[in-house]
Amino acid sequence: MNPLILDGKSLAKRIEQELAQRTQALLAHAPGRIPILATILVGNDPASATYVKMKGNACRRIGMDSRSIELPEHTTTAELKAVINELNSDPDVHGILLQHPVPHQIDERHCFDSIALEKDVDGVTCLGFGRMSMGSDAYGSATPAGIMTMLKHYEIPLKGKHAVVLGRSPILGKPMSAMLLNEDCTVTICHSRTVNLQEHIRMADILVAAVGKPAFVQKDWIREGSIIIDAGYHPGGIGDVHSDAYPLSSAFTPVPGGVGPMTISTLMSQTLTAAEKALGIIL
Fold first, then answer.
1. What's 115's DSSP letter?
2. What is the pLDDT of residues 117-139, one digit of tens each?
3. Which member of 120, 122, 205, 230 is catalytic?
């Protein structure tokens, strides 16, 4: 039987249509109060600039707006924090995104945690992570939250399943593990120091690969019938899982067109929700 393709591209397009309708409803309620996502790009990394541009384009597609702030490579932690504080105080800005990574001289974690909780639409603050992991109201980190939306849309059973998360980054692996745990999965977190990694992966009902290494997970590591969520993207359209492994699964996310589009649609959705809350549409 052919595995189910978890098509994030088509699902994200459907979500954008729903967000466009919500944006129109918001503007009818509060004329002129266009939801705004502020993006901060420090330095001139081409890939980061492309990601920021994609997010701005997504805002415009659903009737929102974006405010792009570009800072030089030599920006200090204090200078970046001052920009974030200014955006925190601006009532016209509903969401703030600090593009990762920032130059080495900046304390990225300190700057992430400077973002006001109500504007942390990318789910990067420690406070937001803590609230999310405890099941309290907070915006989830955009990529794992998008994966959860996809799993629910395709009605992938989660309760009682053994999920293996390969990667422990603070914006993907760790929040992904907490979200799956909150949905009653049994979660194993694997990383570069994990002993007998292949054996852990073979036990997975659901594998989330977020290790950042092209075609790292091999075909013979995969248990037949498992769900493969490939959160990696590398030049040439290569994920973290070798494409030979996909046919063994019962469902998988393609690369590209799987997880990536869901990240952006989640960011848009959470920004719009933040705007609705700020304008009293959602209390």
1. S
2. 999 999 999 999 999 999 999 99
3. 122
- The question of whether 7 is a catalytic residue gets the answer no
Is 270 catalytic? The answer is no
The active-site residue, picked from 99, 120, 205, 270, is: 99
Which pLDDT value is given to residue 198? Answer: 97
To 5 degrees, how large is the angle CA 261–CA 240–CA 40? Answer: 45
Which of 7, 24, 45, 55 is an active site residue? 55
**Is 1 a residue whose pLDDT tops 70?**
no
User: Positive or negative CA dihedral for 78, 83, 89, 95?
Assistant: negative
Q: Is this model's pTM higher than 0.90 or not?
A: yes
Distance linking the first and last C-alpha atoms of the chain: 47
List, in order of start, the domains of the chain with CATH numbers.
Answer: 30-118 (3.40.50.10860), 142-261 (3.40.50.720)
Is residue 55 annotated as a catalytic residue, yes or no?
A: yes
Distance between CA atoms of 237 and 244, rounded to whole angstroms?
A: 14
